[in-house]
Amino acid sequence: MSYRLLSYAAGKEARPGLFVNDTVYELREWPSVLALLEDWSSARGKLAQLAKKPRGKGTPLKKVKLLAPVLYPGNIYCAGANYKDHVAEMDRAQGREPGPTMKDRGEQPWHFIKTGRSSVVGPETTVKLPSYSHAVDWEVELVAVIGRKSKDLPVEKALGCVAGYTIANDLSARDVMRREKNPPTSPFHFDWVSQKCFDGSCPLGPWIVPAAEIRDPHALGIKLWVGDELMQDSNTSEMIFNTAEQIAMLSSRVTLQPGDLVLTGTPAGVGMGRKRFLKSGERVRLWIESIGEFSHKVA
Questions:
Q1: 120-141 pLDDT tens trace
Q2: What is the pTM (predicted TM-score) of this model?
Q3: Residue 184 has what pLDDT?
Q4: What pLDDT shows up at residue 182?
Q5: Domain limits for position 10
Q6: Are residues 56 and 170 both part of a single domain?
Q7: Are 36 and 134 within one domain?
Q8: Residues 230, 133: one domain?
Q9: Residue 202: which residues within 8 A CB-CB, separation 6 or more?
């Protein structure tokens, strides 16, 4: 039986839930989705059984307030410049002819880090645009949710540590990405915290789809709308470094922990290439094939 993992509001508390047949059932065996992920090796078998025969009455999805599925990830690793169409788009936006990718040049996957508790918000949240920026951009991304403590994984085994997949918007304050008083050659030229880590900069949702239900994470349609305007429309096959290559690289540097998130990059169609950024009151909708969709607003 197909199922989804989610977090939902129960009064003032957050509870883990099992979504089956348009109904959400409370998972009483674990206090949170994060605790469940820390117990993933045994939890996934129990979840499969519960999905066949859910316990309790359950609540229709439309009556449930969804929260970010993982409250809260320990680490959020975000792939930079990892879609071929997006790299070409960014090159053109900066007046350069598209050239070889990092992979073509023999480089390894590259990641930056977002904060956890401050950045992660759930579906239907209204994200407050940071006062110091006038150019907040959108980036829809496939997210791999880690379900097993992992170190030094070979590429061919890297997807074995993935519990499931969800969707993120890697919101980015483009006009503060550079510290202009520092020359471009300075290691202090870029300001990753201001650009990527403002409060609410990682809307996440709507749930986690178990990895076993995603036959190929590199053959999924991926889209983002601002209002009714389709901005991003691509496929995860456009990734330069696939999810396994990213996880293997990360695990060679750090120990991946259950509940960590790996944001795998964004395709073409971001605002920077259009010189068009988010405005107060706009709604953003994100969709990935076989996972689902969610929306949030900005104000």
A1: 999 999 999 999 999 999 999 9
A2: 0.95
A3: 82
A4: 80
A5: 4-67
A6: no
A7: no
A8: yes
A9: 76, 114, 119, 120, 121, 168, 169, 170, 171, 263
